[in-house]
Design goal:
The chain is built from 2 helices and 13 strands; from the N terminus they run αβββαββββββββββ. By secondary structure, it is mainly beta. A 10-stranded antiparallel beta barrel has the order 1-4-5-6-7-9-10-11-12-13.
Length: about 280
């Protein structure tokens, strides 16, 4: 009996789930003109907390130079933001389409720890740590519409997600003497590509209300990455206003050159313009 890899199992489960969902909402499908192009452009604000661990490697042979636990609440993230852009776009013609989502974050923060409890006689010493993090997350996928009717829609996705991060940690000792205390600069710049398979669409409970959903799973340069979103929105003549909760997770293999595990999770508010 052939043994399937975890990614093959997840891929088959996603396809089976998409077909099952399509069967559940397929009655009474509404046919549109397959020659019409349809577009949707979304600008949104995602306010996630960040949790994870970054291991910095310095020296010959990639010896560990230190690690830093990342734990940033949404309010801290907003305070630490230097720049942010978040948006998505999709184009459809008949059942076929393309979907892309782009996120860029630039944030920084500082923390000071008195060494009195860690170093004997270190009551006058302080360890200052400055962490800077820049992250780009880009998703691009082709999509095929399985179902679209008054009850909802389901689209299966196949594509990739790209994650690039620039994480740096500056450590500095401050104290009365000597005048120049040791300092260190550690950095990691991982860039990973992962193939993904997913499902996106919306439920329509009634009136102008909608419940958009999105889920994907994949692997490649990372051991596993997955993402999920569920929200509620209201449709207007020009587009939609949506409030959702979004979760994005990356697990990296210890043998990978990137020693980092990180998760983004939190609420998002967006506006979609359809034309």
């Amino acid at each position: 009996m052939k043994t399937l890899s975890p990614l093959q199992v997840l891929t088959r489960a996603a396809v089976a789930g998409a077909l099952g969902l399509a069967f559940c909402i397929s009655a009474g499908a509404v046919e549109g003109n397959p020659d019409d192009w349809r577009f949707g452009a979304t600008l949104y604000g995602w306010f996630p907390g960040i949790d994870g661990t970054v291991t910095f490697k310095n020296g010959a042979g990639g010896r560990s130079g230190g690690s830093e636990d990342l734990s940033v609440d949404a309010d801290q993230l907003i305070d630490a933001l230097n720049f942010v852009f978040m948006g998505s776009f999709e184009a459809r013609k008949g059942p076929w389409g393309v979907f892309t989502d782009f996120i860029y974050l630039d944030l920084s923060g500082d923390k000071t720890q008195n060494l009195a409890s860690l170093v004997p006689g270190g009551s006058g010493l302080n360890l200052n740590a400055g962490l800077n993090l820049k992250a780009t997350v880009w998703t691009l996928a082709g999509q095929y519409n399985l179902v679209e009717n008054p009850s909802g829609s389901a689209n299966i996705l196949l594509g990739f997600r790209y994650l690039a991060m620039d994480a740096s940690l500056d450590l500095r000792l401050d104290g009365p003497l000597p005048p120049e205390l040791p300092s260190a600069h550690l950095s990691r710049k991982p860039a990973v590509w992962d193939g993904i398979v997913g499902l996106k669409g919306e439920f329509k409970p009634g009136g102008n209300w909608i419940m958009p959903y999105y889920a994907d799973v994949g692997a490649g340069d990372s051991k596993l990455t997955w993402q999920a979103l569920l929200g509620v929105g209201y449709q207007y003549g020009w587009g939609d206003v949506i409030l959702a909760y979004r979760y994005l997770k990356y697990d990296f293999d210890n043998n990978n050159n990137t020693d980092m595990d990180i998760a983004f999770s939190g609420p998002a508010l967006g506006v979609t313009f359809r034309f």
